[in-house]
């Protein structure tokens, strides 16, 4: 029972994490207002810091969980990079302000595509976390690989290759 409560609390904490990442501009402005920091005294004046930090943390989370499965280090790293690219798009400081974008006709389709990708990746990444806390590490084994050409998943050691070649003769 305590484990179930712990898992639900973790999912709620991750949901807060994703809500912050859904609109980094609003989060950044809110934090600046409640802290009383003016624009002239701020060390950072951009919501991009939230995007970069959330992306880096999510990449570290994926990498650590993939190593726990255990997956090879290279595969864990490539999955973390792939998910990091998705997280970067999911946490972009891009608001769905359609009145603002309708005045930029040459970039309107690009912005709408980015907004669509942002929503899709946001939901996908949240689903990964929810499945992890409900089902365990098995979700990381089934994550799709876009970098499959960069490494051989089913690499046989040299001794096994030699043995297999002998059996085929």
Describe this structure in words.
70% of the residues lie in helices and 0% in strands. It is mainly α and 169 residues long.
Element layout with pairings:
Elements: H1 2-22, H2 24-35, H3 48-68, H4 73-90, H5 98-101, H6 108-135, H7 138-141, H8 158-168
Helix pairs in contact: 1-6, 3-4, 4-6
Short description:
This protein is 70% helix and 0% strand. The chain has helices at residues 2-22, 24-35, 48-68, 73-90, 98-101, 108-135, 138-141, 158-168. The longest helix has 28 residues, at 108-135.
Which descriptors would you attach to this protein?
169 residues; mainly alpha; 70% helix; globular
Give the tally of β-strands: 0
Largest sheet data: none
Q: What best-fitting shape do the alpha-carbon axes yield?
A: globular
Calculate the mean pLDDT score and round it. 84
Parts with pLDDT < 50 across at least 5 consecutive residues: none
- Structural class, from secondary structure content? mainly alpha
The number of helical segments is: 8
**Helix-strand sequence:** HHHHHHHH
Strand content: under 5%
Supply Rg: 21 Å
């Amino acid at each position: 029972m305590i484990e179930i409560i712990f898992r639900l609390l973790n999912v709620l904490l991750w949901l807060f994490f994703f809500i912050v990442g859904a609109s980094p501009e609003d989060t950044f402005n809110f934090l600046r207002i409640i802290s009383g920091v003016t624009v002239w005294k701020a060390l950072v004046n951009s919501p991009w810091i939230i995007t970069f930090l959330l992306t880096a943390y999510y990449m570290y989370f994926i990498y650590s969980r993939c190593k726990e499965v255990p997956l090879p280090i290279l595969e864990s790293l490539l999955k973390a990079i792939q998910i990091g690219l998705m997280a970067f798009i999911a946490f972009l400081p891009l608001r769905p302000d359609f009145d603002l974008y309708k005045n930029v006709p040459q970039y309107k389709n690009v912005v709408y595509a980015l907004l669509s990708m942002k929503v899709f990746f946001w939901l996908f990444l949240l689903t990964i976390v929810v499945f992890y806390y409900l089902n365990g590490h098995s979700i990381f084994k089934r994550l799709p690989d876009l970098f499959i050409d960069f490494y051989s998943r089913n690499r046989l050691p040299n001794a096994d290759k030699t043995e297999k070649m002998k059996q085929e003769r």
